[in-house]
Amino acid sequence: MTSDYIGIDFGTSNCAVATWIKGKPTLITVDENSNNPYKIRSAIYLTNDQSGAVSNNAQSNQKTLNDMLNSGEILFGEEGFNAFLLTPEEGRYVNSPKNFLGAKIPKRLLDNFETLVVRFLTYLKQCAEKQMGLSIEKTVIARPVNYHSTMGELGNQQAESLMLRVSQ
Fold this sequence. Notes:
Elements: E1 5-10, E2 14-21, E3 24-27, E4 40-41, E5 43-47, H1 58-71, E6 74-76, H2 77-86, E7 91-95, H3 107-132, E8 138-141, H4 153-166
Parallel strand pairs: 1-8
Antiparallel strand pairs: 1-2, 2-3, 2-4, 5-6, 5-7
Helix pairs in contact: 1-3
């Protein structure tokens, strides 16, 4: 029997997904570009929209990041990392997005990281649905004892709250 749930290890360096099939744990292929397809580098590369705008102005950069989140292409894992190495000027690279979840950063940036985490977790869920051939209804997401944080326990609470929102 195939289950309709998965477990996600949303790690700082790598992520993995597993499910229970025929009475045993089964890893999900999450990165076909990796030497180990059952783990994916915790990396995201957002490509610029058609304008290719680059600026040193914080407000312009925020607008460009929002545009990339809304209309640019998002590449995950080795694909994203390799695209960044080939064309670093054509997008934004985020390594270990989990590191930012407990950080004291402006709300608008935290909202962007929330969107990135939603996209990454959605990608992982889609990998499982493709391999399993069914819709996933439930997900268990592992959490660390303490998130990387500049705010101590408040950072843990912020990160846990964000992860609860994105998992819904």
